[in-house]
Structures
1.
Amino acid sequence: MTKQALIIGATGIVGQNLANRLVADGWTVFGLARRTETLPATVVPVKADVLDVENLRRSLKNISVSHVFFTTWTRGKTEAENCIINSAMVSNVFKALPRPDALIHASLVTGLKHYLGPFEAYATGQPPVTPFRESMPRLEVENFYYNQEDALFEAARKHDFSWTVHRPHTIIGFAIGNVMNMGVTLAAYATICRETGRPFIFPGSPVQWSGLTDVTDARQLADQLLWAATNPAGRNEAFNVVNGDVFRWNWLWPRIAEMFGIESASYPGHATSLTEILAEDGALWADIAAQNGLKEAAIEKLVSPWHTDADLGRPVECITDMSKSRSLGFVGYRSTLESFSDLFDRLRAEHYIP
């Protein structure tokens, strides 16, 4: 099988880990992003704006690939705008590729907002029934994930390639400057608590503190993307993807604290905005970075507290079923505790946290 991949959003948390996985498996990887300076030398950079078809055509004119992976999205002011721009992102790539009929497979990464609804209506109304299963119907609300899926399905019919949709929970993995990155956000928060003596308070809701939940290691997602793209059993299906274990934050939180040499504070019984906690810490982080020789002194380039608040503040249980891909042969597993410890170790090794 031809092993030439185009990753849309190759500098993001999903794209980076997928690129590393494919390269390790012998693939030629083209990494498309608006800024490609941070791509590793093993990835062929493709600098382009996916919302500009002519720009895309120029950037892709000499590229022929067998597989396309969509691993990014663009956030608009409203969900209606999200639907327009994110479905256009998918459609534009197939319009711009010089040989879309040569494609074997295309993969789209979305997430659990497929079941929970968009940020504007996040987990509102009737609580969803868990665990989330791929067979659940779409919600009766605007959701750009649905528009992206429809654009993918239309292109697959037109150009006769197979597809998969992948729905991770909160993604834990290495990336810098990512718009949704809980792991790096918590690392910066814990570092500030250690340096200042502030209490390391879990910022989420009582349901998230006490209830069962799961997350998705970016490497687990990369493994499933590769499996589905190369295995006939995975064609033309939507798959949930999480680590395979479950946990409670009231168990994990003190263990994260231990990784930073601090104690976890008593849970206050209510959500506490991490966005507000970190709002005035720009100068403080710059001082921490200077004292420890860190690579990034601008805290806003590391953290995404709004996203962490949204995920940890959910008023509903979030458990994801993976039976579908398991039954078809995907047996990947990651320990959530190791997902966090591996990330923190790498952030230290690459001098993003002390």
Note: The mean pLDDT is 95.
2.
Amino acid sequence: MIMNILFVSPSFNPLDGIGWGSTQRTNLLFEACTQLGHVDVISFVDGVISNREDCTVLYSNSKPKAGQREGRVMKFLRMLTPLNPYAMFPKNKACAEIVRGFIAQKHYDLIVCRYIPEAMMCGLYDYANRLVIDVDDNPVDVERTAARASRTWRNRMYHSYRAAIIEKVVNKIQKSCRFTFYANPEQAIYTNSAYLPNIPFYEYKLPLVEYAMTSPRLLFVGNMSYGPNAHGVDKFVDNIFPMIRKHIHDAELHLVGGCNQQAFLDKWNKVEGVKYMGFVDDLQQEYQDARVVVVPIYGGAGTNIKVLEAMQMKRPCVTTIYGVRGFKEYFRDGNEIMIAEDDASFAEKVVKLLKTEHLNHEIVSQAYKAVIGNFSHKAFNEVVESKLKSIC
């Protein structure tokens, strides 16, 4: 069966996979959909262009403004109607009307969108019987992370209450939708859901740079404009990196990725051995020059593709219990990865990998086999194709 699929992408160019985890997964999902039939695209991003026979871009323009910004009273009042998905995830009326206009012109077997808030923003709950959502970052986890990170009791109570309400809303959306994908297998518990793994975007084979050819350099790769990444790096710089430098005086840390929080940048750049690189022209070279990749993540939603990318790039990775969430059945502490329980454990495991060549190589070898065997483009496409075919 050749399908007609509408792919709605409010925040990313689905035809362009260059960038970080969110843009890459959007592109991967789009490409998987093109294997099933013709895909029409609506994107609220400028410059989405297609010269392909299997894809037509119906709309590409900046996202219309949602209107006047809501005050606290209105946000509170919306939480009093928890069974209305549009109350917790407001509809952008202009976006919804654009989408509605195109849907009225053509029959679509499926309507695909990433993220629950973005699907609701575009009014896609009105087409729930055809709607496929790649949930990825579960909004419940986002609110719980915000509650844990809150510095005042009022904010903690606010985000905790929102998490409880949103959990009910997500369950309602889940039951109404045609199908959902989750990046965390522990959340794909519904009959109309499936685990769709995050995968490293780079599939080319890299030569293993010998341990002796690297310096004691650590690498973090990620979007540090995203709160959990920025706060994780900050905790690492404050608490863990000094312990590492006590044992290895010339250890250094390179931070690669965007960051719009100048206060963090000013602070990190004052720490000896820490260098913020921003965006780099050759990410592969950064991986090859590093001896260990660190992923100090203590909150957030979804799974950490940066863990998989480190393994694909043949670099040992040290992360937290939270950072390996969703990968537990594939990666074991001390075999394919190093998992730290606290700051002291994190520093100890990094030092071991910086100092011990055979351990460094063993972790790399085991991790590379595991990630190639379980997290490939082929595996991703097979999940999307089999599940979407089964519901049409």
Note: The longest helix spans residues 153-176.
3.
Amino acid sequence: MKRGARIALFLLVQLVLTALLLEASLRIAAPHAPGLRTLLGTAAQGTDYSEVETLEALLEQSVLGFVPFEIRGGFRLNSRSLCTREYTKPGRPGARRIMVLGDSYAFACGGVPFHLMWHTLIEDGLNQTEPQPVEVFSLGVPAVGPMFQLRMWQLEHELVRPDLVIAAFYVGNDFTDEQGRLADPRLESPLFRASTVLRLGRNLMRLRQVADHRHARAAATGSATTARNGGYITDRTVPDRPPVEMTDEQHGRLMATRLLLWTPDNRERLDILAAHVSGVLERLHQEVTTYGADFLVVLIPEAFQIDEELLDRSLDRLDLTRPEIDLDRPQRILIRHLAEAGIATFDLTPGLRAAGRDEALYWERDPHWNVAGNRVAGRLLTQHVRSR
């Protein structure tokens, strides 16, 4: 064997051994490192946050982190590192307070400005008609599930002192966040599913895109490190697209992956997941009502439940047809579980479907509501909360 070939073979062997060592190290470390699990794109199995004692420690287990006063999406986070106004001070005399719990739908919804978010619009709408002032505080955190939100309530409710708690449940991923994701060989190569090293590299590249965008926005709106307070808008610009768009392929694969939960092969799995998240929401309901506040679970549909063209494209990826999918089954199962526990729910699906016939309510290549979607959701929820 020639010297050059021997060197190439030696380097190849070293590369393979290094990859195997890294693979083994990641697999050993992942169960003990929530941040690493997030980077690997594998939701924690049965995540339990009950031993987390502070909000800072809780947020450090999320993709948001604990970053008070940093600018995110044109909003300077408050002293609790959340995308909402300060709630540590006494509110307006006689004001009724609403606490919103949720994931990215309650945080920034793909980059929608704070003043156009659905929960801000609820506050604006109620204050136009209600005799008492209303204050709405959103404690949403991206990429978390109901168990995280339960612990958020436990740590923060004494500061917020809410009269109503709204738990925003997104059927697109709140069944599977904290309970593991589904996989399908038609949507992702077996190598990527099997290799933690490849998933880590891919997800780090995606996070780099997000970080570059965030730093650019921070430079345009001012340094976050010099701020002494937070909880206010720094940029009222209305975007025409999300800050970090997926490619058509990435978005299509994501939608098809989420549609797996709707397929006949996963009926039993959906039943199990629904029973689990219902149990978490029942515990949250019990704690909220014991505290003396009202509790409402709001169901947020997945984009393909509203957009028929997107549904057809997602079905094509799975080689399925519409008759093979029970499109509203996730909401129906969850509503049944919660009704049995005496928990009030409000399903946004019918209202969004009606409005979606006239305008797009979701970003084109992002699974969140756009400005119009937030406007419709805000209107529907304002009417519902007012009727309560």
Note: The chain has 14 helices and eight strands.
4.
Amino acid sequence: MSFIEVKDLRREFRVFKHREGVWGAFRDLFQRNYRILPAVDGISFSFEKGEFVGYIGPNGAGKSTTIKMMTGILVPTSGEIVANGFRPYADRARYTKSIGVVFGQRTQLWWDIAVVESFKLLRRIYDVPEKDYRERLGFFSELLGLDEFLHSPVRKLSLGQRMRCEVAAALLHNPPIVFLDEPTIGLDLVAKDRIRGFLKDINRTFKTTILLTTHDLSDIEELCRRVIIIDKGKLLYDGTLDELRLRLGRRHMISVHLEDRAHRERFEHALDAENGITWDNLDDLTFRIRYNRERASSADIIRRIIHEVPVRDIFVEAEPIEDIIKTIYGQGKV
């Protein structure tokens, strides 16, 4: 059996359906209508120990509901979860001591006391030996740069500082499984880079199994080799990012920087719009060409451009992962 097994997982919510108008509101007082909303609709996947997996989907896709079931907060309507030998909703007291959780908009730190005092309280809650606690805190402080605000109240921290503390707090007891729900939401590039680097080190050093949900696809590209895509409660894709690009990343881009703006007409003449080639002007000398690699090859396009006009610089780019994901959401399949 895999380290984490999720089989045919379903979660339905009974939602009150309001009637319209004053008379409808009056009737609702005595007779209510409900509808069943499937938030997660029969998904299955498994993780091996030490995997770092991205779990993505649009708003309302069922990501947070899945994580709440995997952490034991919600009980599934049907299906099964086994994580590290536990059934989260049945063995919750023991299971929660073996996981770490970060919800981007919620805090597990005490608002009015110093960060280090919150860490000490968490050490006692999770029964972490003093020696292990000090070693991990020193390691985390070095990687995340916590020393400068360890003795400041949480309410005085910036969002970036607080999220670094939240991530450290979730990992102080060295859990084998960590769930991260939007851990970099609202952060600047420097704070994001700090947290990403820290998570990479933790995953590599301790073989921690990490499930990451985020709307920032640069997080996924930076951290995860494998990605699971969900929409409307259903699983759309489970595999590597590289495989996803091969299957759906058919459009590539070539950026071209000309020697002289006088060559613009000759440059456009060299391109074959009939083969689905389009281009945008980034400035007078720089163009971005988009093309379908099934209809035109980069080598042929570059050869025609270089033969026609002097070029200062030219390079090929793959289709951005954001565009590939949008295609999947639009098609509803891979």
Note: The CA atoms of residues 125 and 170 lie 12 Å apart.
